[in-house]
Amino acid sequence: MEVSKNQLHSFRNLLDNSRSIVLVPHKNTDGDAIGSVLGWRKVLTNKGYKVTGIVPDDVPSNLLWMEGADTIIVYGKNKSEGDSELNSADLLIFLDFNTIERCGEIATVARKLRIPKVMIDHHPYPDPELAELQFSQTSVSSTCELSCHIIEALGWKELLDLKAAECFYSGIITDTGSLSYNSSDPETYRIVGQLVEKGIDKEKIHKELFQSNSVNRMKLLGHVLCYNLRVMPDSESAYIFISHEELERFSYQPGDTEGFVNFPLAIKGIKVSVLFTEREKDKFVKISFRSRNNIPVNKYSERFFSGGGHLNAAGGEWHGTLEEALKRFKETFPGFLAQL
Ligand code: 5GP
Ligand code: MN
């Protein structure tokens, strides 16, 4: 992957004129979002910058082991500190998202800030208004991989130390299902090779990411697979729903439903999988989509659930009840597929 010389030149200029940098990822953070915030934070701190990570909402518990995760500002819980850091920053870097709404409440402040903004992301259709400098590359596995390419192109490879390597590796691994999808480019493995050379303990990282589940999460997974999985054979699709009451019953913690959406795809013949999670009772449903081949779930989500994302992995929202969201899906999805 080639990072454009012009973009690199602009980035260098912005960095040269900054001292205090704020890093912001999308809401409902995942390994790629947190990995890129903490990886960049380490690298930029090593370069001598004052760097703050501000996330819209809680960091999922399986990512808290990463260096610096405990000092990230959670905007939803600490607005005043978040605002003060944002207002004193010289440079804002958006990581792993492409439209301002995706960073939740931080958007209100970020919109007003008259400082340079940079976006580093791998989602299609970036909003040209989001940032004046956009490193947007949809062919890379993850924002973490793209970040490693940029760091290499800046000539900063030695600043990417062991702790930063752990973070970037985690992002690549989470966004590719442990290198099972979105990972057919040899470049991804060249970057992974470099991260391994930094001395990361792969086994430890995989254990932290995927084998540190709470008993409640495992029971919630068992429960939904048993009772809340529906198959629509005519559409080669399957979906899972989780009510707010069920989240409470299993003492839901952020990140607990991460990966649930992949389970229906393990059913023979299923090409599309959807997860509906009622985050606020009767008010708000978060939706995750996964697909195989060229079924554009990002397009579907954009049209019917105010969302977006990648061709095969997208997300959306429904402001209303879980029943309404399910009804809308069942009524619109077969027609959408038929049109493709
Ligand atoms: P996940 O299902 O893992 O939450 O998200 C899958 C992909 O869709 C991610 O790349 C994520 O950034 C994107 N995505 C998730 N939710 C939304 C949303 O509400 N709006 C948009 N535009 N993208 C989303
Ligand atoms: Mn990502």
TrEMBL record:
<dbReference type="InterPro" id="IPR001667">
    <property type="entry name" value="DDH_dom"/>
</dbReference>
<feature type="domain" description="DDH">
    <location>
        <begin position="21"/>
        <end position="172"/>
    </location>
</feature>
<dbReference type="InterPro" id="IPR051319">
    <property type="entry name" value="Oligoribo/pAp-PDE_c-di-AMP_PDE"/>
</dbReference>
<dbReference type="InterPro" id="IPR038763">
    <property type="entry name" value="DHH_sf"/>
</dbReference>
<dbReference type="GO" id="GO:0003676">
    <property type="term" value="F:nucleic acid binding"/>
</dbReference>
<dbReference type="Pfam" id="PF02272">
    <property type="entry name" value="DHHA1"/>
</dbReference>
<protein>
    <submittedName>
        <fullName>Phosphoesterase RecJ domain-containing protein</fullName>
    </submittedName>
</protein>
<dbReference type="InterPro" id="IPR003156">
    <property type="entry name" value="DHHA1_dom"/>
</dbReference>
<dbReference type="Pfam" id="PF01368">
    <property type="entry name" value="DHH"/>
</dbReference>
<feature type="domain" description="DHHA1">
    <location>
        <begin position="250"/>
        <end position="332"/>
    </location>
</feature>
